[in-house]
Amino acid sequence: MTRQEIVTKIKQGKLMAIVRLKEQSKVSVFVDKLVAAKVKVLEITSNTPGYLEEITNARRRYADNSILIGAGTVTDVEIAKKSIASGAQFLVTPNTNPEVVTIAHQNEIPVVMGALTPTEICTAANHNADIIKLFPAGAMGLDYFKSIKGPLNNIDFFVVGGIDLSNVEEWMSAGASGVGLGSVLTNCIESDGSSESLERTVRAFFEKVNK
One Pfam family, short name please (predicted)? Predict the structure, then answer.
């Protein structure tokens, strides 16, 4: 797929699952459960043990491109290069690092770039980041996002951090293009180990983000 096709698929999905786990042995199981729950876009973070191997494994299992597998917590160029080499289809950063965009775009890979302040957001956008990840969104709150979205209404934002079922509709109504979900999904599995809670939670999020 081209970079633009991947970006389009991310935006259409509206929901990005963040796979951040302490044990590598649990990664593939969680990824498969997310896919079974109809998640189409997910990132495996660089602070998950064995993340490069797990990105490669996931790409192999879903080689038909029905699922997008990205790398998360890509804070610098070295992580970006290793993630791309492992097969990551997109990169997600927590910080604003234009060099990551440069290396990614050289490889036809889109970047969801973390930014918080107006300066960071504009810096990321001016360096052609494909989507802006407002992070940590919940720490700043909806009023902050609305203030940012006013003058920067031409920018596509995915909001990450503190998003749950009680507030996701408000974020989407305020102009978010999508959401990134981490612990709210991980906790579903860690609570009882079953897939039912995860599937219910994902279904509820999809209903709300697609209203």
Answer: Aldolase
